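ESCALATION

Customer reports they have been waiting on this structure for their group meeting. Please prioritize. Original submission:
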Amino acid sequence: MSDFIALLQYRTTDKGGRNTPAFSKYRPQIKFDFDEMQTSGEQTFIDKDIVYPGEEVKATIRIAAVLYFKGRLAKDMLFEFREGPRVIGTGKILEILNDTLKIDH
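Update from on-call: job pushed to the front of the queue and completed.
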């Protein structure tokens, strides 16, 4: 099951992004501003299979550390996605699908 839908912006190669396209089901590390913890986040692209450096795409995201981020995520929250220490793109949560992750109000 997917945890949330996000709008992803891949950096161009000259801005530190990938040299090659990413394919749907790609699993970079995801990092939110509020925590140093990173988690694997599988990106399943919506309406396309391949994303090139510099492109934007909507995707469903499935994170590995659901229990760690329980009650800590919200709509419009920003995050980075990385390959090792290198930030290759940024994302914005559009909708949370897994209620376990929603910030409790």
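Sent to customer with the following note: The domain at 4-101 is CATH 2.40.30.10 (Elongation Factor Tu (Ef-tu); domain 3).
Escalation resolved.
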